[in-house]
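Co-fold these.
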Amino acid sequence: MMAKLIGKRITRNEDPRLLTGQALFVDDVELPGMLHAAFLRSEYAHAILKGVDVSAALERPGVVAAFTAEDMGDDWSPGPPLVIPPPTIEDVEFYTRTQVPLVKDKVRHAGEPLAIVIAENRYIAEDALDDIVVDLEPLDVVTNIERALDPDSPLVHDDLESNLAAHLVQEKGDYAAIREGADKVIKRRIVIERGIAGAIENRGIVASWDNKQQQLTVWDTTQSPIPIRNGLASMFGLSEYQVRVIAPFVGGAFGPKIMMFYPEEVLLTWSTLKMGKPIKWIEDRRENFYATTQERGQVHNVELALTSDGRILGLRDDFLHDTGAYDPYGLTIPLNTQCHALGPYDIPNFSSDLKVVFTNKTLTTPVRGAGRPQGVYVIERMLDIAARELGIDRTEIRKRNYLPKDVFPYDNIIIDQAFESFVIDSGDYLPAMEKALKLIDYEKFTKEEQPKLREGGRRLGIGVVSFIETTGVGPYEGARVTIESSGKVNTATGVGTQGQGHFTSFAQIVAERLGVDVRDVHIVTGDTAQFHWGTGTFASRGAVVAANAVNAAALIVRGKVLKLAGDLLETPEEELELEDGVVRVVDDPTRFISLGDLAQRSNPLRGAVEPGTEPGLEATAYFGPKYGATAFGTHAMIVEVDPETMMVEIKRYIVVEDCGTVLNPLIVEGQLHGGVALGIGNSFYEKLVFDDNGQLLNASFADYLIPTAAEIPTIEIAHQVTPSPLNPLGSKGVGEAGAIPVPALFAQAVENALDVDGLEILESPLSPLRLFELFHGEEKDA
Amino acid sequence: MKPAPFEYIAPTTVEEALGHLTEYGYDAKVLAGGQSLIPMMNFRLAQPAVLVDLNKLAELSFIRSEKDGELRIGAMTRHFQVERDDLVAEHAPLIHEAMPKIATPQIRSRGTFGGSIAHADPAAELTTICVALDGRFRCQSVRGERWVPAKDFFLGMFTSVLEPDEMLVEIAIPPMAPRTGWALEEEARRVHDFALVGVGAVVTLDEQGCCERARLVFLSVGDGPVEAVKAAEMLIGKEGTPEIIRAAAEAVTEELDPSADIHASVKYRLHLARVLARRALEKAFARAAIPGTQAA
Ligand SMILES: Cc1cc2nc3c(=O)[nH]c(=O)nc-3n(C[C@H](O)[C@H](O)[C@H](O)COP(=O)(O)OP(=O)(O)OC[C@H]3O[C@@H](n4cnc5c(N)ncnc54)[C@H](O)[C@@H]3O)c2cc1C
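Predicted complex below.
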């Protein structure tokens, strides 16, 4: 019997290297004669640039070059849009305004680069930034998204009539008509603030032009090495084969590293081509707060129409989404918000008017969750309020509205982030909820423990929230599987890796198909010289799209192995098995041949390779799903709030996750732990605070609070498996799942703990200060 | 985030270090654990021309007690050494209790007692506690040395009476009187953060169990350690009943003038100050009454 590896709790292949400091990160790249770059960034959020004079910087010993937008000449141009607006919705208004490599005429957010200095080391480069003379004329600033569309608001882009970046209406059924006859209509305003991704490793780039080889190599912390390669080649008039982009080990990405092209990616490449010297730039933490994209930042005006027994008749969600100073990423985030506001529920009528606005802030692009937490927050909070107002238990109202398990595939009519109709492939929501309730002992806690504790003056609360997560969107990924003459297997994929465990989960698939030790499968990710078709790691798609490509390629190689071995062992293929690195005859284990021998035989030194056949035990295959696979789950938590200090302690945290086939529970649980941690940050700690001048007041980890291990509770995880019918492995993504329901859950649990009449939480994140204000019925003390 | 250029000197004796400070004056800064200074240099908020590294001065790393029971701590003693020291736990349990609330174990392994005092951060625990415990600081320069009482040492945010040619070399904490109870209560956003508000309470009872002496010193509510003198006076001659404690705690806000930041409004800080003062006093009174917790 073949050892079953898919689904096994296997420790990670990559960990020995990572834990002993043997893994290559961009900052580990050292090249002879390498120079170092630093950027001069605007301190103003909105200003006319009248001049940048770098001459004094050039005088400083150790400075090699300094460039401004003027110096770029015809090479200066705004970046190409990364995601174009959806062509499939009628009447979508969209104004594309993309980021620039260096500011030429107007600064649109604090931190936009004005000049690049290249020096012998980073210290000198930073010293030289102080030598640059900049003439900026500050302008009025727009940061508040609700004021961005005021007629007298300052304009981020002067050539537009307003700060409207996009306008789009999505409809399902007829909300207006159903509202008339509804027993209950609930209206609320919900505010969700902005945060950062906060990867441990900031961005980094090393660009090197080898003039003799006419070869450009770029090490980049990107999540998308292949599109970066193709883009750089076209930008600089090189063949794609002259450009190699390597995304080595990356210390976390969480979305912002999918953004392209960052000004630094363009400038480092442009500078190395101009100077012929390798150049390194490693983003520092302060830069990261201004120069790396951010997310969340929406204001919703929501209406939920229900029957008196709590059945949802319709949802209306009109909202503003903050895109920051530019909008290269199109509508991905707010489209996700719309889809996830529908959640796992049967919502026959839906209407959503979305306005995307420009502000003088760093641009927003997806951050783990990517619009989904906002949508989940909207529907889950509205259901909590509906339950209270209708006198129905919070969990019961959800059960009454779940889509039943026999409706799938279920078409939600509106379009999703892939501009396709939002179809949910499969689901089974009720058991996930029941499991969570059982694990947290909802009945006992609410009926016995909570009342008793409350009598003793303690405020404990419970929350239970359901969610869906659209994952694994196309277009496609590919993989090449090769058995080497050593018997070991090499597998090259096009995705980048930032901690997801690809070296293990992909290896498990290959090892299972080919009957080899999982440690003998070598995985390559993120090197365009090894594989150059594909898009990247994002949208929780690695385990769906890339893993199925790996599976497909491994199965083709398996076919080749069986055919060759069958010929050599003179045995029909059905009577052979692959195990322990050999192919053997099932009934006569003494007759076998190793994969290494087979690999050698398939690549003969003498004789001919027959026409119509190929040498080697190798195959390349691709996978592209028809549409995304939708994962789901229920989270539950118990919190205690100190009613005097408003400090919150999480007592228990339960995750019931259904991401289809689990390739490796250890990795899935790791993803969930990290996701929940980020979600806790989004709920209670992490908020970017901008003043009216667009200045960030907490641009460091001293004041922007990332929860640490001490703030994260033990997370109890249970799995449920509802395979996706859309791919052979049956997998769904899980990369973002952990983060998605947490803000809604946190709000519900804290509200329940405080238990004050009329105290409703309609914002995220919270903080002790905000709870204090809410508790004492005060307005924001801004 | 790289520091501006600076000269680096690593003296091996206090005398040598003081010589450099005399020579360079305002251009020099001493480097202790670097946990506050290095981030400031990397942000280029501090740009000393000369850095005098004290880390080779083994003579400044010690914990001992004098004959009269006074505790002496060398300026370069690391937080983690103080945290794990039995003498400190016995003679100055308030310091012992405060240590885990300072930053993270990583930071405590480098940060020094003297650095924390000299830095004069209004959010620091040790500055507050030294005031509450009537500590004294030995300041030395080539001109000589002087002992400065903790309550006179801090002049404002990040400023103290230390002259540019002077160094803090030693901290002294007097023995606690019998029937003395103590507590440090604080709330921080995350476990390792500087507290939003904190308060150290020290209460000494007379033989009848009435309060003979009380100190209430706050952190993070002003430019330095802030003592609520009048509130503490309300306790004198009284038993630590819930009513008395509550009244004193309510009164503290009269003497505090905190400012707002993104994590706490003035109102919230004052509210926390009242709540924490009450909790600290409850604990301190209870401890003062328990035999065995008194200083020997
Ligand atoms: C993330 C973080 C969290 C923290 N949280 C807390 C907290 O909760 N509570 C708290 O109290 N502290 C906290 N700290 C500060 C920490 O305790 C520092 O170690 C301490 O403030 C400074 O000590 P140091 O030895 O590192 O001093 P350094 O950083 O080396 O020096 C600080 C200043 O003091 C001067 N100085 C140092 N030693 C002497 C001396 N002997 N004579 C004269 N001048 C001197 C230096 O020149 C410098 O100006 C935190 C620090 C960090 C980074």
